[in-house]
Design goal:
This protein is α/β, with parallel strands linked by helices. It contains nine helices and seven strands. A seven-stranded mixed beta sheet has the order 3-2-1-4-5-7-6, with helices on both faces. Helix 4 crosses helix 6 and helix 4 packs antiparallel against helix 7. The two termini are about 30 Å apart.
Amino acid sequence: MIQAQPFLKWAGGKTQHIKKFQKFYPAELKNGKIKRYFEPFLGSGAVFFDVAQKYKIDSALLCDINEELILTYLVIQRDVDKLLEYLLRYKKSYLKLDTEKQKEFYYELRTNYNLQRFNIDYKKYSENWIPRAAQLIFMNKTCYNGLFRMNSKGEFNSPVGRYKNPKIFDEENLQKISELLQMAEVCKLHFADIKSKARKSSFVYFDPPYRPLNRTASFTSYSTFQFNDPQQIELANLFKALDKKQAKLMLSNSDPKNEDPSDNFFDELYEDYHLYRIKANRMINSKKDKRGKINEILVLNYDVEAA
């Protein structure tokens, strides 16, 4: 049987880190004492898929402020078969076209997707959500660099990409993801709202929008929600509040010392906790010479043997 993998490529997705992260998971998760998992910045869900398939958790709260993302997860959870029907039709329609026609197909669909957002009731699940989720998956598989990007108006604005055979219809993986999501409550939620929900036997993984390393590296627009230093500080205060409730906490973010060794923003913000630096591939940069290995930080409120 296959292992479920993230179905979306997402800015800052953690697939590349999973093997490293496993060394940093709390011992209580590995020995079965943690039954409840929280991920308030869900994104591609790579850590949830790993935890849910490797350890014996009973339930999960998966949330994000991005309503299009949550809509798509909920459709996979509730109506994966109908979603697959739409994706199969997109696959057949798209792959039979030549490059220029594929480009036209993509932009026409993107225009409709953006216009139709005013007709979607994001608070109430309906049949209208299913084709919308299919459109998001289709665009994620065919847009430039597979990157979900929105402008300040809330419009999806990634340009078309070039792929010979994009994996628009991934039936086995989506079926497996749907099975895993049956244990989860999936909802649109501000990260601060998990404060009352997490408790001692919980494991919470925070993967917020990363703090830009410099003024030109300000990609935080995976939604219209802004996440700047005040929000980073608000998140650190939540981290401290949940620490007092004895929840196990893990948080990842950028390391400002990559660009400015004197920048102690996170070192000071999390000075009472364990802060590790791990190597990561810098994926999002228009200039190839700016991609490569950099440090990211990992903050824990518990000890780990392997670290």
